[in-house]
């Protein structure tokens, strides 16, 4: 059998770019992209991407050149996920929530050949250029509003003009020769350190896309609402995945409640992805029940079971996934089991809040004791670090070999997330390793304490961090934002009430020793809660006097003994 060689007909490099010409051939007249009053078919989208690829090559984009984009979810950003790699380049979709300094840091590090900027972000881009050496400045291309052009320009290059004058006869799309070549460069959110550039391969992006479509059960012709920013891990690979299924991309410039609910009704949305923070946006709008169920994939911070239960009452059918930039998006999916349908709603929501089982694209996912690299027992209680291995794991951190080496150990990628494995094999995150609260030698999961707080009907947002304690070393401190109807300043909900509520839900030693009410939790540019800022604030706080008078009788004996040392 070894005498059978690889041939061009039976060994083709894997690349998500191949989904586009297939869509143009198979789904030619189906709607591909909708944005306001503009709509394209897959034949048209393919034609536009081929012309844009030619224009990029004419501007000097070569193999492995970075092309940066600062834009909301628009047809242009969607098209560039195909056109840039078709030109041999590497797409770098920049977080639109960054300020000029943040954008400048990425430009200095990525050194893009071109930068596309939406007309709404021209000021941010031009200010960012001031922080980049003139010799390293990329060519700047403005993306005007496709529905109602404004005429905004910076220089001569404009997106639709490039599409119009691209000449595929002179510059045909470049074929992917090596599937290990880079297809995308994404920067981490940098909550505790400088953001790192994560590099995806064509192979990894292809496998992640196919695997997620299969595990989420996305059939042909989905209507996908872009409520998730495309700059988040290339839209969790759905920039390519919707093309693979011949679906329609419904683009909205901002995921407001009005925009999302209108799109669901007007276009018959079947699928959407959201970060958990958007659940509150949907819940606060108080709309009528949905005309039909909408499949929702959520990831990011572990969503509390109480929050999942409330959002499903609106008609959203939620699937929980776990992932990270370094894993090309989702790395685990909470695959639903039919027998769970018979369970009461709170139990179903608790099961959905788990992170689930390994993504199909991975060769393995586990929870290990990093001291021994042994797998933790499947008892739902023993903590370890979640580790991954497989082709969908990043190539590495761009221009950062030290960080790349530190992220891999013994054939595994270390996620930095602490979790447990339940007897059924489903993984549940308990915390980020840096967020675990070690109180009297016992580990306390901030996620578990937050989940208890979210069960209170007045709580809109909650974050729990470590606070100094004179006996236990550190103890939980909760920062809580109340729902609007409770946040009137009249004191309807007190610290004592929330503490008592938590005592009825979790072990007493896990109960917050301090509750700080805030109008809104601080978040970074990707919407993640900035726990580092909360930890800094908590360092200056002290537990309530009533909690310092006597040892907690629910604490393990080892912790009581430690307190005497």
Low-pLDDT runs:
546-565
Give the rounded overall mean pLDDT: 90
Q: Give the total of beta strands.
A: 27
| Largest sheet features | 9 strands, mixed
Termini Cα gap: 68 Å
CATH arch. level architecture of the domain at 436-563: 2-Layer Sandwich
Question: Mind telling me the C-alpha Rg?
Answer: 25 Å
**At the first level of CATH, what is the class of the domain at 436-563?**
Alpha Beta
User: What is the 3D shape?
Assistant: globular
Overview of this structure, please?
It is a single chain. The chain has 565 residues and is an alpha/beta fold. The chain has a domain at 436-563: ANL, C-terminal domain (GMP Synthetase, Chain A, domain 3). Helix content is 29%, strand content 25%. The chain contains 18 helices and 27 strands. The strands form six sheets. Strands 2-1-10-9-11-12-13-14-15 form a nine-stranded mixed beta sheet, with helices on both faces. Strands 16, 17, 18, 20, 21 and 22 form a six-stranded antiparallel beta sheet that branches. Strands 4-3-5-6 form a four-stranded parallel beta sheet, covered by helices on one side. A hairpin with a 4-residue loop joins strand 16 and strand 17. It is globular. Mean pLDDT is 90; it is low at 546-565. Residues 22-398 form the AMP-dependent synthetase/ligase domain. Residues 448-528 form the AMP-binding enzyme C-terminal domain. One of its GO terms (biological process) is phenylpropanoid metabolic process. Residues 535-553 have a biased composition (Basic and acidic residues). Its cofactor is Mg(2+).
């Amino acid at each position: 059998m070894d005498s059978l060689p690889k041939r061009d007909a039976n060994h083709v490099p894997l690349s998500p770019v191949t989904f586009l010409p297939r869509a143009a051939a198979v789904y030619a007249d189906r709607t591909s992209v909708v944005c306001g009053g503009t709509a394209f078919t897959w034949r048209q989208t393919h034609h536009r991407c081929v012309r844009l690829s030619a224009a990029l090559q004419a501007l000097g984009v070569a193999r492995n050149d970075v092309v940066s984009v600062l834009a909301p979810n628009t047809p242009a950003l969607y098209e560039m996920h195909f056109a840039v790699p078709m030109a041999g380049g590497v797409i770098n979709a920049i977080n639109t929530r960054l300020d000029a300094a943040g954008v400048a840091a990425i430009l200095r590090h990525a050194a893009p050949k071109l930068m596309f900027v939406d007309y709404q972000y021209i000021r941010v881009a031009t200010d960012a250029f001031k922080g980049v050496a003139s010799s390293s400045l990329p060519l700047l291309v403005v993306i005007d509003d496709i529905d109602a052009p404004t005429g905004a320009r910076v220089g001569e290059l404009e997106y639709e003009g490039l599409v119009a004058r691209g000449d595929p006869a002179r510059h045909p799309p470049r074929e992917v020769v090596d599937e290990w070549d880079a297809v995308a460069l994404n920067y981490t959110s940098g909550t505790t350190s400088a953001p790192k550039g994560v590099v995806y391969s064509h192979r990894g992006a292809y496998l992640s896309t196919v695997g997620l479509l299969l595990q989420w059960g996305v059939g042909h012709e989905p209507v996908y609402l872009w409520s998730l920013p495309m700059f988040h891990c290339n839209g969790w690979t759905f920039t390519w995945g919707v093309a693979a299924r011949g679906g329609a991309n419904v683009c909205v410039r901002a995921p407001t409640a009005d925009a999302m609910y209108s799109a669901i009704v007007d276009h018959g949305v079947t699928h959407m992805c959201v970060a958990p923070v958007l659940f509150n946006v949907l819940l606060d709008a108080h709309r009528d029940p949905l005309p039909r169920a909408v499949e929702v994939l959520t990831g990011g911070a572990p969503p509390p079971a109480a929050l999942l239960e409330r959002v499903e009452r609106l008609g959203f059918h939620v699937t929980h996934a776990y992932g990270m930039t370094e894993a090309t998006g989702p790395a685990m999916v909470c695959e639903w089991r039919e027998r769970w349908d018979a369970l009461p709603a709170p139990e179903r929501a608790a099961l959905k809040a788990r992170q689930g089982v390994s993504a199909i694209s991975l060769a393995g996912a586990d929870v290990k004791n990093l001291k021994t690299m042994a797998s933790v027992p499947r008892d739902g209680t023993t903590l370890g670090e979640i580790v991954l291995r497989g082709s969908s794991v990043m190539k590495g951190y761009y221009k950062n070999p030290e960080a790349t080496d530190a992220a891999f150990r013994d054939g595994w990628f270390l996620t930095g997330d602490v979790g447990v494995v339940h007897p059924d094999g489903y993984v549940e995150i308990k915390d980020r390793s840096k967020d675990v609260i070690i109180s009297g030698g016992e580990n306390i999961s901030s996620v578990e304490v937050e989940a208890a707080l979210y069960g209170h009907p007045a709580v809109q947002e909650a974050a729990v961090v470590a606070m100094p304690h004179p006996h236990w070393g550190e103890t939980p401190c909760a920062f809580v934002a109340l729902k609007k109807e409770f946040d009137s300043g009249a004191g309807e909900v007190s610290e004592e009430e929330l503490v008592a509520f938590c005592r009825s839900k979790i072990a007493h030693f896990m109960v917050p020793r301090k509750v700080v009410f805030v109008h809104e939790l601080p978040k970074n540019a990707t919407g993640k809660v900035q726990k580092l800022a909360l930890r800094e604030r908590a360092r200056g706080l002290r537990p309530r006097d009533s909690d310092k008078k006597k040892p907690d009788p629910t604490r393990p004996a080892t912790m009581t003994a430690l307190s005497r040392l």
